[in-house]
Amino acid sequence: MSWCAVKDCNSGRKHRANLYGNEGSDVRFFRFPKTSYYCDKWIDSCGKNRNGINTNNARICSLHFDENAYIPKPLVETMLGISPRHKRKLKFDALPTLKVWNTSSCIDYVEKNTTETETTNLVDAGLEQIHQEPLNNELVNLEESGVDLFNMSFQNDHYCTTINGSNISTSSKSTIDAQHPSIEDSWNLKKNKDDAQEISRLQNLLNDKMVENKSLKEEITRLKNIIAIQEGKLLTANDQKRQEHLFEIHFREKLSEMFSPTQIDLILNPKEKVFRWSNEDIAAAISLRSVSSKAYFYLREKKIIPCQVSLSTLRKWAATFSVEKGMLTDVLALMKEKGKSMSRNDKITVLSFDETYISHKISYDKKNEQILGPYKCVQTVMARGLTCSWKQPVFYDFQCPMTKDLLYNIISEIHNSGFEVVALVSDMGPTNIGLWKNLDITPSSSWFINPVSRKRVHVFADVPHLLKLARNHFIDKGFDFPENVYVGKNVLEEYLKISKKSEFELAYRFSEKHINVTGTLRQNVKLATQVFSNRLAEALKYCGKKNMLTMYNWKEASELIKLFNDWFDLLNTQLPIDKFTKSYGMDEDSQNELLKKMDSTIENMKVHGSKKRLPFQTGILVTNASLRNLLIDIKNNYNDIYYIMTRRVNSDVLENLYSYLKGMVGSNTHMTPIEFKYCLRWYLLGKHSNMVFTNNHNTQDTDESCLVNCLSGIIFNDAEVIECFPTDVQADITDDALTSVMSDLGGNTEDTEESNSELLDNYDIHSLMEVHEMSEIEKECIEYIIGSVVKKFISKYPYLGEKVYHCNENNSSWTEQMTKVNLIRPSSDVTYVANVIETIFNIFHGNNGLNKSPGIIKKVTDLVLKEINNEIPVEVINCLVRTRTFIRLNNLNKAIANKIFDVKRTNVKKFIC
């Protein structure tokens, strides 16, 4: 508890109430001022030793300050008539002037706050009243004197007041107290009487204020509750907002690989509109539009994907991109800008050019108000990366054969864009052969000088085109070799006679249509590769070793086909190691040996009936020489390149371009000039515009294919059906044709009921297996097929078979002859199960048909399980039954295709006659 520092002042002590009466309850204590001047004044007023006062903790009570020492009351308190003393504050220069020891130091302050007349009158009146009557007489009438003794300073035994230079001496306080003990009591009674009314008034006012205060407290409580509720809602909203923010971040991360930022915004806020589409959004929309306008309309209307770019916006963007015939300057400008972020190796460029036929119709270009046509063909030039997978059309023109000057101009423009041409690819068309002559291209000099960089540009013939030409001459006329060795299609026809005897074939993809190929099928590279295939070469070799083939130079034919197969694999790699074939340069010695062997064969070979070397032979020799020289130059002029992926030096990119543009038109007929022009623009800005709008490289040509071929390929792969003929033949296959063929072959066209399967129990399966003795080819083929099935389960069931290593001996099996590293020879138990399956399969389906009842795979599997006692897993048996069913299905389709070809050949003969 605090107490007053003034000497003999009992404020703050236990008996203060006895001394001061009720007034002691209103006493307040004030700290000493921080200012040293005023602090010294306060210390002087206390009447104590300076060292005895700790100004940090000492206090002086409010009884020692008059009204003028306080800061004036606020207007509100003045109007209400209240004076809350406990809230009153002292002025900064306030000094204690009441009941203090040393008043001399406070005179200036008193004079400042009290006029001279008021002070003199106050003191004179008090002294006169005191001297008029003895102190021991009756009680001084303080009401008449009007003097408040407490406004006079008295302390301990004497007090003195000095005002205006006059000295007033009085008796000691102790004498006065002794003679007039009731003065103070009388004063207190009078004061209490006067204060009673004031207290009553203040009490009433206090009650009113308490009521008002209560209502205000209630209002404060209500408002606090509202604030607490709102704060809770705010915390909940902030937490929800934070959760939504975290969800949005996670959501964007998940969808960033599939959608652009704008598309993700549309998914999160579907009602908001997009005021500006990004380049990525425009490129994606143009890609979809270039594939199919109907698909774009459908997706946009149904809002299946968040892409709502209007066609008008797409047209505005497309209109800014120039695709006028000649050099595509806008493309070159974009390539130049893109090349700034590419390495020198990434900008190594291969040029491919080719012509395609277009419609002879005359077209009108509305934008340029120009007539186009009639034209016969369009020349297109494509630039692509040798070490980096990018491609870009850079030139097109109608009725424009490639000349030396035009080629030099194109190479110069590309070089000015920051890309260096190192190779040139074209087919062996008549105009291109003329260009080779102008450039002095020969097998011994397979390059020309770059007009800008003065380095060698190596010339290549399109390898797939060379393979088709070789196939055509091989089938049509055959090849002559030294020592009167002739190799032609007669050996292939002899092999087909052998393979027709069974459903199981060594070269199961090879058929009569490969020999009798005509019309547009001659443009099919796949058919050419199946003629010059390793499987057909090994089949001829196997049949020759087994004395099934004894004439037609089967050995030379097998070696020739094998050589073409290996050479094409080397010149068609799209990966560093592509299906066991290394890219050129990774095994340079053996690869150069292969090229040397190919050169020797081509030089010594002549097409039957021709006395000189044909263009396709020259193309092979030039291509081999250019490949060797290109690798040398690449190693000398560039860093960190030691192999070439050879598919990038062929013209597949142009073939894919023409197929894509024709697909955009939606017709198999030739495009008009105006269609080619504007489809090319959609091509550049759409799917293949990654080089224009994004940092991603284009996909490789081999990954691009027609939509129908893609879907059919997936379906056939999932069903494990072996495709044996092109889609145009498949389109001619109808149910009537299938029924006709199955009837001719004696197939089982009756549906077998579930209960009829019990009739199979009447057969002695083991006796039938002994009676039906398989040929050697059938046994070898079945072993090969079973091994391919077992290979799928060998890691799960190792006891089903064992690995086979390559063997070329005369007594080697077909599996040993065909294997490279991973073929499997099935165990004896699996082979026995396969023989049981073959017997039951022929009973269930017939010898040359298929049962059309549902659940045929399960039915045959159940029948097989009844006949075997070994521990072959059910899933393996099921896979064997399914594979055998597809083999039968494939053979039926082959028979249908052959019949259709026979009918077409017959009609052609009748027309010619």
Q: Which descriptors would you attach to this protein?
A:
about 900 residues; alpha+beta; seven-stranded mixed sheet; 35 helices; about 50% helix; elongated; zinc; zinc-finger; DNA-binding; THAP1/10
Strand content: 5-15%
Q: Detail the poorly predicted runs.
A: 103-181, 689-757
The oligomeric state of the chains shown is: single chain
Radius of gyration: 56 Å
DSSP strand count? 20
Helix content: 40-55%
Task: Report the sheet with the most strands, covering strand number, pairing sense and barrel closure.
Answer: 7 strands, mixed
Q: Helical region count?
A: 35
* Shape by Cα distribution: elongated
Which structural class should the secondary elements be placed in?
Answer: alpha+beta
Strand order of the largest sheet: 5-10-9-6-11-13-12
Task: Describe this structure in a few short sentences.
By secondary structure, this protein is an alpha+beta fold.
Describe this protein's structure:
With 913 residues, the protein is an alpha+beta fold. Among the domains are: 16-183, no CATH class; 184-255; 464-618, no CATH class; 711-912, no CATH class. It contains 35 helices and 20 strands. Strands 5-10-9-6-11-13-12 form a seven-stranded mixed sheet, sandwiched between helices. A three-stranded antiparallel sheet has the order 15-14-18. A two-stranded antiparallel ribbon has the order 1-2. Helix 34 crosses helix 35 (874-912). The chain starts with 15 loop residues before the first helix and ends with a helix.
